[in-house]
């Protein structure tokens, strides 16, 4: 039996080793097509620079939604799936769903003071005090324990209340903003543009399903039933007053990463998406699955190549995978070979955040 | 590891012992409220007789959707979940999803002729030839084997094609109609009435999720992503040409019955339904869960008490549970105690099927 955290897919990525962000390699990774002419969808994609990525999105939406188009897709088949971390919002240097777990430790210690002297909780307390050396002490099994202690062994209602409280109070280290403000404005525009054209937009995340559902509607306009993620077992239980409630057990049900993404899409949606977006090897199978559909389809990869406005990381940047992420050279090569659209944050995005007034 | 059929919940119900339908006990089970005055929702519920059940539905919809109502529910929270077998369509004397498995055996035998002499496939062939005595030979483990052989070990695409073909050709024994015509017109009206009032309607079935999804949109207006059911593991795989596909493995993932219904609702929807309908003990927890919500809510139980136009079965009819179903006296008592609305097919439904011109 795996614990909830194996489920979160984080044993396959490096989470904590990248608190010091590496500098970006320079130079555009996309050869801009000089011929590309961007048809204007009003201001729907106002934060995008003209270029092949913006053009691919517009062309795809027109091809699938305009009456009489040979690639017309019936509205009910217009399913679009988005990875979250690194695709819709910042994932660097630590996933927000992991920060939630780390910053939840003081409350655990307050409830059970003895934990303050017990690893890994003692280690997390050191990290939170600013002891960066302590990060190296935190092993993956340690992190699993911390995630299990903060995500499970409580009711769904209690968990939701705790996450909601944390999101209201927590601030990221770089921008000093709530995490929910660190969403990418150009991707928010894509979500809205798709919905305005009859698409149903979904989040398909390796992060915790219950975690993301607490804010998905408010932050992305995506209702909880259109969020799938890594999920644990819940148990139908009864309170002392006889009222039923759902209890989060420390057992993995779905690992929504890698092959788990298309498998989870089948379970939760039952249709193949015609559009998918991701940013890492954990999204590879979902992008491949969408691209293998019989009709028009679009798969997109967000490339983090903007160290100035966000971050630059991954082997496609010439940076080691073990240090900074999982956008590998192989993934980049596959994207080019199979006609996935690579989105360069540096070149394709005029603005990155709603609060960011600078334009590239 | 359970096989797919344990998952289907059928080891908890009697499936095959009721091919000879028992006669119904007479007498109304609901005390009609003489004071009940049915507000007319146009012709939305035209197949319902005036009475407490119809009134409860109308009152609930008005209370939750009329602006200014103290029990107003925001549109995105208007989730309604329906059991399928026995609630939306006929389940007697054999669940359609089980008939599908039984009638799939000749094709299995055609592909592998040796199976004709191997139990349980040989037994099923006898049953299909009309040998009712053979039914007694079919044990639950036998049935599990037949279900596994017809529901799994093939691609999702192949399974969908096989089900679609069967549904087009198969006819039920009593009405000589396609199974998809055996849906209850009054419940179809409720689905439409709810959707017209901003509700999102879901099927939550103990039957196979992939099975129901092949026809849910056409038959009920419910898209596949709003169907949850008992589900097996699917495996992301590659064909010889390198194309990815999903393969149905003979392993249980979700048993969508009893506590599995509210647990599955949390997994797939992430919100508590404010309305739920069922007809058996397998729906008990779902009905209880909906009823335990903080705001206005409605739980409904369909009582099969119309031997003439459909069937009459279950201990609430004074008939033994082992023979005819799982609407137990305890369930009936719980419905009355906890304010669930009991729908009497005999008294509340003017017409049962769209093809049925008689009125009660």
Question: Can you walk through the features of this model?
Answer:
2 copies of one chain form a homodimer. Chain A has 360 residues and is of the alpha/beta class. Chain A has 2 domains: 40-90 and 177-360, Rossmann fold (3-Layer(aba) Sandwich), CATH 3.40.50; 95-171, no CATH class. Chain A has 15 helices and 8 strands. The first copy, chain A, has helices at residues 4-7, 52-65, 96-103, 105-111, 121-128, 140-151, 156-169, 185-196, 209-213, 216-220, 260-268, 284-291, 321-324, 329-338, 345-348, and strands spanning 79-82, 154-155, 200-208, 227-238, 244-254, 275-278, 298-303, 341-344. An 8-stranded mixed beta sheet of chain A has the order 2-5-4-3-1-6-7-8, with helices on both faces. In chain A, helix 12 links the parallel strand 6 and strand 7 (298-303). The N and C termini of chain A lie far apart (48 Å). Mean pLDDT of chain A is 87; it is low at 1-40. Chain A binds chain B through residues 76, 79, 156, 200, 209-210, 213, 217, 223-225, 227, 231, 233-236, 243-244, 246, 253-254, 259, 262-263, 266-271, 285, 288-289, 292, and chain B through 76, 79, 156, 200, 209-210, 213, 217, 223-225, 227, 231, 233-236, 243-244, 246, 253-254, 259, 262-263, 266-271, 285, 288-289, 292.
């Amino acid at each position: 039996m795996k614990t909830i955290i194996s489920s979160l897919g984080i044993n396959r990525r490096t989470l904590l080793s990248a608190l010091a962000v590496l500098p970006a390699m320079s130079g555009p990774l996309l050869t801009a097509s000089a011929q590309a002419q961007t048809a204007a969808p009003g201001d729907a994609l106002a934060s995008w620079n003209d270029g092949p990525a913006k053009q691919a999105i517009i062309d795809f939406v027109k091809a699938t939604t305009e009456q009489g188009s040979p690639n017309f897709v019936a509205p009910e088949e217009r399913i679009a799936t988005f990875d979250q971390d690194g695709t819709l919002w910042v994932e660097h240097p630590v996933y927000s769903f992991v920060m939630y777990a780390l910053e939840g430790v003081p409350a655990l210690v307050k409830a059970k003071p003895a934990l303050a002297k017990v690893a890994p909780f003692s280690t997390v307390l050191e990290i939170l005090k600013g002891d960066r050396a302590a990060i190296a002490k935190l092993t993956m099994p340690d992190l699993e324990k911390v995630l299990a202690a903060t995500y499970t062994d409580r009711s769904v209602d209690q968990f939701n209340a705790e996450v909601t409280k944390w999101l209201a109070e927590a601030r990221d280290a770089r921008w000093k903003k709530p995490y929910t403000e660190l969403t990418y404005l150009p991707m928010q525009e894509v979500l809205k543009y798709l919905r305005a054209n009859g698409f149903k937009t979904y989040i398909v995340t390796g992060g915790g399903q219950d975690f993301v559902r607490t804010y998905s509607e408010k932050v992305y306009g995506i209702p909880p039933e259109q969020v799938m993620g890594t999920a644990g077992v819940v148990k139908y239980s009864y309170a002392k007053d006889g009222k039923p409630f759902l209890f989060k057990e420390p057992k993995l049900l779905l690992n929504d990463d890698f092959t788990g993404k298309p498998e989870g899409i089948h379970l939760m949606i039952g249709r193949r998406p015609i559009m998918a977006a991701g940013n890492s090897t954990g999204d590879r199978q979902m992008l491949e699955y969408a691209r293998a559909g019989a009709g028009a389809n679009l798969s997109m990869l967000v490339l983090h190549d903007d160290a100035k406005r966000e971050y630059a990381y991954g082997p496609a940047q010439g940076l080691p995978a073990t240090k900074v992420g999982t956008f590998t050279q192989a993934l980049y090569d596959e994207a080019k070979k199979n006609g996935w659209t690579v989105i360069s944050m540096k070149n394709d995005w005029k603005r990155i955040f709603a609060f960011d007034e600078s334009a590239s």
